[in-house]
Design goal:
Layout: H1 5-14, E1 23-36, E2 40-54, E3 59-63, H2 70-78, E4 85-93, E5 96-97, H3 100-106, E6 111-114, H4 127-133, H5 140-150, H6 155-158, H7 167-180, E7 185-189, H8 197-212, E8 216-221, H9 224-230, E9 233-238, E10 241-247, H10 261-268, H11 303-307, E11 313-315, E12 318-320
Helix pairs in contact: 4-5, 4-7, 5-7
This protein binds adenosine-5'-triphosphate and nickel (II) ion.
Protein name: Nickel import system ATP-binding protein NikD
EC number: 7.2.2.11
Family: Belongs to the ABC transporter superfamily.
Length: about 325
């Protein structure tokens, strides 16, 4: 696991060919083509100016409110977006552009998704079998039994069809699938809601084990608390943009070491801190603004923030998109 990511992010672009990061997103944007009022075509942008890097052995948490574009990013990486999606920017796996063809080849093998929805399970296949089908090694059944035991799933659960499983059990089956897949990059989209404390700890430990084994993990969550328990660095999303990339150690005290006002607000909203709610709400999807996406809720916004969008820059070993950080 590494914590010197900020300099590494910048350096790694310069020495791209020699030692590229496991996974990179650069200036990525995503819009949907829509038809309004008959034949008039419009586009709605849901992700813009998104950057992030995941190194081998690193757990990167992507934290953001509901609707900030987290699942869409996950689906974009896997290449499973609806037809009307328009993508721009680059996604690179091991320094090479992820083309749709490459995505099909890597999906489920090198890059594995723990989807947010349990509907992703095959309704016609028993739980144990679903997990066995992604194992490439021998002794599929033994490996599946072992992971089920670790994830708190009984041998009876393995013989059940998805509709016979509770929501929490189904989530654990999905997580088991990614864990045994042998993928180098695991994208976990909200793998923890509805898990009891014991299974939550198991899931977190398992993510850590995968990282120790050299895999890169993208852990998508809206819960900054669980992100801080497991991740090496935290990428904060707001309205489809990365507003900050911070080290876990930066989250302490009153958030003095954090850079973006939104990240500080998220930290101070935690029950163990001030429990101060964040006033206002995220701008709706498709909202086009000249200025900073957080400006309407920001306590330190100036006139500049209403007129211009800040670019990302490195501040104090982290990355921030704010004029006043
Ligand atoms: N096919 C689509 N066409 C138009 N808009 C879409 C489409 N799919 C998703 N969106 C919109 O894009 C935004 C981002 O959605 P996304 O599911 O990525 O959010 P999220 O951050 O994963 O939220 P949550 O925490 O609730 O899972 C949402 O406002 C959603 O309504
Ligand atoms: Ni989501």
């Amino acid at each position: 696991m590494n914590t010197s990511y900020a300099t590494k992010d910048v350096d790694s672009r310069a020495v791209e060919d020699e030692n590229p990061p496991l996974f990179e997103v650069e200036n990525f944007s995503l819009a949907f083509r829509q038809f309004r009022g008959g034949f008039q075509e419009t586009t709605v942008e849901v992700i813009s100016k998104l950057d992030l890097t995941i190194n081998e052995g690193e757990i990167v948490a992507v934290v953001g409110a509901s609707g900030s574009g987290k699942s869409l990013l996950a689906n974009a990486i896997l290449g499973v977006l609806p037809e009307n999606a328009i993508l721009n920017g680059t996604l690179k796996y091991k320094g090479v552009n992820l083309t749709p063809k490459k995505q099909i080849r890597l999906r489920g093998k090198e890059i594995s998704l723990i989807p947010q929805s349990v509907n992703a399970l095959d309704p016609l296949m028993k739980a144990g079998k679903q997990v066995q089908t992604v194992i490439k090694r021998k002794q599929k059944k033994a490996i599946q039994r072992d992971i089920f035991q670790k994830m708190g799933l009984s041998t009876r659960a393995a013989k059940r069809y998805p509709f016979e499983l509770s929501g929490g059990m189904a989530r654990r089956v999905l997580a088991s699938t990614a864990m045994v897949s042998g993928a180098r990059l695991v994208i976990a989209d909200e793998p923890t809601p509805g898990l009891d404390e014991h299974v939550l700890n198991e899931t977190i430990n398992h993510m850590k084990q995968l990282a120790v084994a050299g895999k890169g993990i993208m852990f998508i969550t809206h819960d900054i608390g669980s992100a801080l328990r497991v991740a090496d660095k935290i990428v904060v999303f707001y309205a489809g943009q990365t507003v900050e990339v911070a080290r876990v150690e930066d989250f302490k005290g009153k958030g003095e070491n954090l850079r973006h006002p939104y990240t500080k607000a998220l930290w101070n909203a935690l029950p163990q801190n001030d429990f101060t709610p964040i006033e206002g709400s995220q701008p709706p999807v498709g909202n086009v603004t000249l200025g900073c996406v957080f400006e309407g809720r920001c306590s330190i916004a100036s006139e500049l923030c209403t007129k211009k969008q800040p670019n990302s820059r490195i501040v104090n070993g982290g990355i921030v998109r704010c004029f006043h950080a």
